[in-house]
Structure formats: structure tokens, C-alpha cells
Design a protein that fits this description.
By secondary structure, the protein is an alpha/beta fold. The protein folds into 3 domains: about 20-160, Rossmann fold; about 190-310 and about 320-410, Thymidylate Synthase, Chain A, CATH 3.30.572; about 420-500. About 35% of the residues lie in helices and about 25% in strands. It is built from 14 helices and 20 strands. The strands form 5 sheets. Strands 9, 10, 11, 12, 13, 14 and 15 form a 7-stranded mixed β-sheet that branches. A 5-stranded mixed β-sheet has the order 1-3-2-4-8, with helices on both faces. A hairpin with a 5-residue loop joins strand 10 and strand 11 (about 220-235). Helix 10 packs across helix 11. The radius of gyration is 29 Å and the shape is elongated. The structure holds 2'-deoxyuridine 5'-monophosphate (UMP). 2'-deoxyuridine 5'-monophosphate (UMP) binds next to strand 14. It comes from Tolypothrix bouteillei VB521301.
């Protein structure tokens, strides 16, 4: 029987719109290589489906579940070709599933699951029957390909072998979802600040998980999203802070590779969408990073130091860059960098994005300091993420990060409010409040009256950026002051102390 006489239909329960369907018996996993660049060398009867696999923790489980539902798939070609594939380890982990198998274990979040015997963490839900998984491993022939040409040649040679019977019946297993309770909150425009990227990340994850809106993504799933989230990292150290144990989704060796994707030019490779380095260094026929350095050396006060990554002529297509605009500014001998993302995966990608941008910020600062009479310090790194989202397949990990690390971060917070501080006294039968600047304590405003509510209303109107806990504190203190005032001398108010009874000594 020839392949063309025997046509198969692939049914995907998961990510159905992310796949290219054919009628053959070979599944092609293209990793980070754009799937259409492989498709164009093949006929639909030569493959069952072509799809990408980005992450071993997120994608592998769904891919395996889809394979179990399609026992007519007898061959697997795994294209493990790019730097990104090496960094992510998804294709390697899939190969390890077939090479080494799996064992019972626990996921990052402590859930019981099948763990692939691999140096990369790859999980399959425990609901999936182990015997079915063993049958799959034994029934599907797999091959790794290191280039598009090699993948195409493997697929064609499998197609030559003629049709095979399915290895069993289609199998489907329950998939348990994670429910999340969402609190009401602002819809547009959010601000998060932290000292390090790690601290800021935990706060971002917390804010999105607690108040982000649940919406469908363009990729057969859901995400929680905040629109226009500004994250300000004030003092990430120059050698980068990785917590111990490291709860970030990246480590130092990943970062090293990633920084070069932002800082360095790279030749165009077939199947690789773009790198930020390429867009910055050469795509528009000029080196934008160097131009920014030159501009600031010439005019340190310039507000025109912009790098653009969006290609108006070409980016209406398949995969436009997420990072679109970078702006560098020097104030008070501090160099800050602000980066705007049209779309940002805050759980899996933001830490790498932020560290890569921090490296760019340091590079620009160092070059300016070298070539001019400046001694610039590093200012804050600011990211503006327009769609700031967490995909539903990361909810469980996100909840775990929040539960374990958010309370610790809240404990570490200091109480200095950039809006200033307030002294409160009760004198001459009035509550008197002075508003002072944070640094020198210069008095900038004074309020007085008998009613706590009235004074709070004035302060709220004058200081809309007051920090939440600070505002709550003022509410408490002013109410105490009003109580003392209305006690006609029986209670004495002293700021930050419990109310005292007035005692007369005879
Ligand atoms: O540097 C990057 C590159 C990609 N993404 C994420 C954002 C989206 O989740 C997805 C891209 O999807 P589109 O918006 O292009 O559909 O990848 C990032 O967060 N940072």
C-alpha cells in the first residue's frame, strides 16, 4: 500500500490551532524553529502534524497527550537545531522520554506526576496511564534532526516506508485545571517597584494573579492579564541577583546566552524569527546601540535617545518582536533605561527580558563613561509591559511562587514613602498635621482641624500617590488624635503610641 492511498486524520485535543495538519504518520516537532519553514519542503501526505515545542514543563505533557490520541502516528522527527532549543531543553527532554523513559515523582509545584528521566525537568500528568506511555515509547520510532534539511530528509524517508497500522486505540485521559479566585482592581495602568529583578518579579506575579483579568489567548488557552504594567527595578546589582534557592525561571548559564541575544548582532538563520541584537545592531542598516551612546556622549541631557525594534514595513506578519521600544535617559548622573513590550509573558520571559535589558543598560553606561568625561551611575530599569500576562499552564507554578516568597518580600519592605512623611500633634484644641519631604524633612504643607475625616480628605486630595499602608497608618493615627481631642483632656495623643489616660498627681 502506498502512503498516498492511506490517509490519516490527526485530532488534537490540546493546542489544535497551533498545528499544521497533514495526512501522514510522522509528527514533526520543530522546537523553536518556525514550523512553516519545515512545512514548505514537504507534502501534506508526508506528515501527520507539524508543531513547535518551546518548554519541557509546559509543552511536553500536552504533546504526549495528543500523541496518545493519535496512534496512527508511528514516527517522530524532533528538530533540535537552534540556540533557543539548547537553552529551553524541550526537544532534549522529549528525546529523553523516548530514550530513557520516566518515573514517578513530583513536579516543581509538588504535584505527583511522571517525571521524564532527563537532566531537564519534564512532567506528564499522573492521570495518564503508565502502560499507555510505555506503549507509546515502544511503538513510535523517533529521530533527532540538527537542521531543517536533516528533518525534511528523515520525514521523506519515513514516508517512503508505506503505511503502517495504528499501534493501538486512541486514548484520552482526564486533565485537571487550576481554579483561581480573582480580586477586583484597576484595569489599565499599574505600577510595581522592587529593588531587584527577583523581588519585582514576585510582586508582578502576585499582582497579575490576584487582579489580572482572565481572557482567551491567541494560542488555544487562557491567560490572566493586566494592561500597561510598569515595573521599576531600582537597584539590581551589576553581577545580577539570583536568590538561593533560585526560584526564578532562569539561571546564570541561561542568562549568559540570553544577554548576547540582546547585545550582539546575529546572522539571519532560516526558521529563526529574529533576535533583539539583530534588530538593534543591523536590521535597519545601522547600529542603534552605538548611535545611542554617541548621542548621549554629545548631548547628555537629550530626551531623544530611542531605539526602535518594530519594523513598520514587515512586522504585520507572523511573529513580530515583543520588545518594541527602548529609551535611555540621564538625570542626576544616573542612566536609566525604559523598555516597552507590546506583549510580555511575565512568568516565563520577563526575568530574562529584564536581565538582558539591564545588561544593555550597563553596556551603554560603561561605553559612555569610557569615551567621555562622565562618571554615570546605573539608574533604574523600567519595563512597560502592555499586555502583561501569565499563561494558564503556569498558574500552578505562579501560585507556588506567591505562596512561598510573597510574604517574605512583604516583610522586608521598608516604610519610606516617596510622597513624604507626616507628623501629627493635638494642640490648641486642634489636630495639627505637617507634611514633610522624605529626605531633608522640609515642611511642605500643614493641615489643622477637629475632624480626622476632614484632614484625611485634604491629604488624599493633595497626595494621590501615597502608599497604601502609609494611608492606612494615617487613618489610624488621625482617628486616635480625634478621640483624644473629643475626650476633653482625659486622653493624651502621642504619635505612634497608644492613647494614654491623663493622670493628675495630688
Ligand atoms: O522577549 C519576549 C518574547 C516573547 N514574549 C512572549 C509574549 C507573548 O506571550 C509571546 C508572543 O506572542 P505574540 O504576542 O507574538 O502572539 O511571547 C515575551 O514575553 N518576551
Amino acid at each position: 500500500m502506498t502512503v498516498s492511498a492511506f490517509q490519516f486524520k490527526y485530532k488534537a485535543l490540546y493546542k489544535p490551532n497551533q498545528l499544521i495538519y497533514g495526512q501522514g504518520q510522522t509528527v514533526i516537532v520543530t522546537g523553536w524553529t518556525v514550523k512553516s519553514t519545515v512545512q514548505k519542503h514537504l507534502l501534506p501526505e508526508e506528515y501527520a502534524v507539524i508543531g513547535q515545542l518551546y518548554s519541557p514543563t509546559r509543552g511536553l505533557n500536552l504533546l504526549i497527550r495528543n500523541l496518545l490520541l493519535n496512534p496512527h502516528v508511528r514516527y517522530l522527527v524532533i528538530l533540535n537545531a537552534t540556540k533557543e532549543d539548547k537553552n529551553a531543553g524541550a526537544c532534549e527532554c522529549l528525546l529523553d522520554f523516548f530514550r530513557n523513559g520516566f518515573e514517578k515523582g513530583v513536579s516543581d509545584t509538588g504535584r505527583q506526576c511522571w517525571v521524564v528521566k532527563s537532566s531537564y525537568s519534564g512532567y506528564i500528568d499522573i492521570e495518564v496511564d503508565a502502560i499507555a506511555l510505555q506503549n507509546l515509547r515502544q511503538s513510535v520510532e523517533y529521530r533527532e534532526a540538527k537542521s531543517i534539511a536533516e528533518a525534511v530528509s528523515s520525514v521523506k524517508s519515513y514516508a517512503q516506508q508505506g503505511a503502517m497500522e495504528p499501534w493501538g486505540s486512541p486514548l484520552e485521559f482526564d486533565l485537571s485545571g487550576v481554579e483561581s479566585a480573582i480580586l477586583p482592581g484597576e484595569r489599565y495602568g499599574h505600577r510595581i517597584e522592587g529593588k531587584t529583578i527577583a523581588e519585582t518579579w514576585v510582586k508582578i506575579i502576585h499582582l497579575i494573579k490576584t487582579t489580572g483579568t482572565l481572557r482567551p489567548t491567541a494560542y488555544d488557552g487562557q491567560w490572566q492579564e493586566l494592561i500597561d504594567l510598569m515595573a521599576i527595578v531600582t537597584s539590581e546589582p551589576e553581577n545580577f541577583y539570583f536568590p538561593e534557592p533560585n526560584y526564578l525561571p532562569i539561571d546564570r548559564s541561561f542568562l549568559q546566552e540570553y544577554v548576547s541575544q540582546i547585545l550582539d548582532d546575529a546572522p539571519q538563520h532560516e526558521g529563526v524569527k529574529y533576535t533583539y541584537g539583530q534588530r538593534l545592531r543591523s536590521h535597519f542598516g545601522r547600529d542603534q546601540i552605538q548611535l545611542c551612546i554617541d548621542k548621549l556622549v554629545k548631548d547628555i541631557n537629550s530626551a531623544r535617545v530611542v531605539m526602535s525594534l518594530w519594523d513598520v514595513g514587515n512586522d504585520a506578519n507572523d511573529s513580530p518582536p515583543c520588545l518594541n521600544h527602548i529609551w535611555v535617559r540621564v538625570v542626576d548622573s544616573e542612566l536609566s533605561l525604559t523598555a516597552t513590550f507590546r506583549s510580555n509573558d511575565m512568568f516565563s520571559a520577563w526575568c530574562a527580558n529584564a536581565m538582558g535589558l539591564r545588561a544593555l543598560q550597563m553596556h551603554i553606561r560603561d561605553k559612555i563613561n569610557k569615551s567621555a568625561a562622565y562618571n554615570l551611575k546605573l539608574g533604574p530599569l523600567v519595563t512597560v509591559s502592555q499586555s502583561a500576562h501569565i499563561y494558564d499552564d503556569c498558574f500552578e507554578n505562579a501560585e507556588k511562587v506567591i505562596k512561598t516568597y510573597y510574604p517574605k518580600i512583604c516583610q522586608q519592605r521598608d516604610y519610606s514613602d516617596p510622597s513624604g512623611s507626616f507628623t501629627i500633634v493635638v494642640q490648641n484644641e486642634e489636630i495639627v498635621v505637617e507634611h514633610m519631604t522624605p529626605g531633608s524633612g522640609e515642611v511642605v504643607n500643614c493641615y489643622s482641624g477637629k475632624s480626622a475625616k476632614q484632614i484625611l480628605t485634604w491629604i488624599a486630595a493633595d497626595c494621590p500617590a501615597l502608599q497604601v499602608e502609609h494611608a492606612m497608618y494615617l487613618g489610624r493615627e488621625l482617628q486616635k488624635a480625634e478621640l483624644a481631642l473629643s475626650s476633653t483632656g482625659e486622653l493624651i495623643y502621642e504619635q505612634d503610641r497608644p492613647l494614654k489616660k491623663f493622670v493628675t498627681i495630688n
